[in-house]
Amino acid sequence: MEEKDIEAIIEGMLFAAGDPLTLDRISEVLELDKKTVKAILGNMVINYQSSKRGIMLREINGKYQLCTRFEHHDFIKKLFEPRQKQGLSTAAFEALSIIAYNQPVTRSKVEQVRGVNSDSAISKLLDKNLIKEAGRLDAPGKPVLYETTEEFLRSFGFKSITDLPRLELNEVQSIDEADESNM
After folding, report:
1. Rounded distance between C-alpha atoms, residue 165 and residue 97, angstroms
2. Distance between CA atoms of residues 146 and 134, nearest Å
């Protein structure tokens, strides 16, 4: 086997391992003596240092690992920063609160309380896993019932749905009252 072939195999092993590999382990896998493998690894370290590649080969406490270059730290850090999640619209918050306080509830009930179509708001809440389908109402058309999810509880810091703040009755109409006023 030529040295370039051995370098390619070592590179693949280090990439696949992710963690540092010892000279003993690399030599064992290649079935080559440590002196030969150490010399090849030494050449690889030099070649990575002199190239303009985004990775380098480092010897760390007798082990070898492929790492990103120090000078690229800011870019790598930025890559792994969590993206800012897009918040909910007012319509989505309205629909979510109606579902949370009246679950399980149908879309038509949410729309009756809000007074507008809530298809988009409910779709967004489903996409964000804040609500889920909770069966179907035993009524004509078998409308889907919605309820909040564990993600909802986690996102808003509740242990259970009973932790929702109590609403003052004079501040908010219940769905039943909204139904009566719409008739």
Report:
1. 11
2. 5
Residue-wise DSSP of the chain? --HHHHHHHHHHHHHHH-S-EEHHHHHHHHT--HHHHHHHHHHHHHHHHHS--SEEEEEETTEEEEEE-GGGHHHHHHHHSPPPPP---HHHHHHHHHHHHH-SEEHHHHHHHHSS--HHHHHHHHHTTSEEEEEE-SSTT-PEEEEE-HHHHHHHT-SSGGGSPPPPTTTS--HHHHHHHH-
Which tokens belong to 170? 């004079």
The residue behind tokens 């007798």 is: 62
Helices 3-17 & 34-50 angle (0-180, nearest 10)? 80
Output the tens digit of pLDDT for each of the chain's 183 residues.
899 999 999 999 999 998 899 999 999 999 999 999 999 999 999 999 999 899 999 888 889 999 999 899 999 988 888 766 678 899 999 999 999 999 999 999 999 999 999 999 999 999 999 999 999 999 899 999 999 999 888 888 888 888 888 877 655 555 555 555 554
Angle (CA) 153-158-160 rounded to 5° is 80
